[in-house]
Amino acid sequence: MPPRVLVVSHSDLSSDPRVDRQIDALRGLYDVVAAGFRPPRYEDVSFVDISIPPPAAGQRALRFARLLARRHEAAYWKHPLTVAALDRLRDVPADVAIANDISTLPVTLRLGMPVLFDAHEYAPGQAGNRWSWHLLYGPHASALCRRYIPRVAAMTTVSTSIADEYLRLTDVRPRVVTNAPRRQALEPTCVHEPVRVLHHGAATPGRGLEEMIRLAGLLDERFMVDFMLVEDAPGYRASLVERARGNPRIRFVAPQPMTSLVETANTYDVGLHLLQPRNPNQRYALPNKLFEFIQARLAVAIGPSPEMARIVERYRCGVVAADFAPETLAAALNGLDADSIGSLKNASHAAADELCAEANVDIVRNAVADALAAGSSDQPTDGTAARASSSS
Fold first, then answer.
1. pLDDT digits over 305-362, tens only?
2. For residue 100, is it left (φ>0), alpha (ψ between -120 and 50) or beta?
3. What is the CATH number of the domain that holds 330?
4. Is the same domain home to 328 and 229?
């Protein structure tokens, strides 16, 4: 029997792109058991449901009080999600575990097996522009990171800059596994008239969607901009639709499933993402959508976000504005003609074979293998990350 890998994530496993690719990289090589809120889309992967009903008002108030008092251990271990996960996973046999995001790390370590921690983004900077984050959740995430990350057998994250942040915080340097989707057998389409621009993602406040709507209004009549937004905060998408009312060149289109998103995006010309750097994760973002734009063979239009800009400039597959003002990126797009957009789409086509999930498979598999080896030898795997401990 191959070793068993337990993948733990507080997410819907059928629609979480990063965890989906993680599972896919390991199934067939390992016996994979996945724990989350909904099952993964693979019939050969066992599933453990760790979802719970929304916490009652009293539970939320008690958690708030613990966070305010900096009782980080109590706030974590008495959280209903933690209690449920520990109860449902303590008897699941596995040789190694993958904990996705800081919310799953301490409880996964307590299961007593070596742990690969996929931090995804920078946990202490997840929403650093909100007062509640500065007061409560940011210090909580920092405390959990400092205490539990040094106990992991191996660690991954989404970008080099975020890896640097974790090194400064915990003295552990993660390996980088990008958010690139699977390689798609697509060709660049001819540039449309009008030029078709796409932004897709979650309708979440604080991500600069208002600025992108303003940018769309500054583009000349050669452009049509579609927003493909998944409802995330009640009423927020509707407020954006109202904001764009009166501009016939802005549309809000139905979101696509994870499995068909890139193919649908291939019918566009430009992928747009202007992300204001309001917190560390936004500053150092290297999101799914950038790689999805490239796999869709689109020209890319972004602000000067350093991790994204590094890729766009290296592969010469888009335009990078000099600043984050909507006017600046709009001017850059208005300066492109059909031939230059076509050249950028062709550059994305050339980059697509390299910027894909397949390029990350060996990194994920090697990290799991090193975690397994750490479990059998009781030695650090990366020179920085220690063997997972079951103590808390």
1. 999 999 999 999 999 999 999 999 999 999 999 999 999 999 999 999 999 999 999 9
2. beta
3. 3.40.50.2000
4. yes
Spatial contact of 130 and 206, defined as CB atoms under 8 Å apart: yes
DSSP secondary structure letters along 320-373: E-SSS-HHHHHHHHHT--HHHHHHHHHHHHHHHTTSSGGGGHHHHHHHHHHHHH
pLDDT at residue 377, as a whole number: 52
201 and 304 in a single domain? The answer is yes
Query: Are 333 and 313 contained in the same domain?
Result: yes
Distance CA(299)–CA(207), nearest Å, equals: 21
Hey, is 148 helix, strand or coil?
Answer: helix
pLDDT bin (cut points 50, 70, 90) of residue 129 is: low
* H or E stretch covering 253: strand 250-253
156 and 121 Cβ atoms separated by less than 8 Å: no
How many CB atoms within 10 Å of residue 54?
8
Place of tokens 């040789």: 95
Looking at the structure, do residues 48 and 72 belong to the same domain, yes or no? yes
Q: What is the pTM for the complete model shown? A: 0.92
Same structural domain, 167 and 225: no
The answer to whether position 392 is within a domain reads no
Provide the domain count of the chain: 2
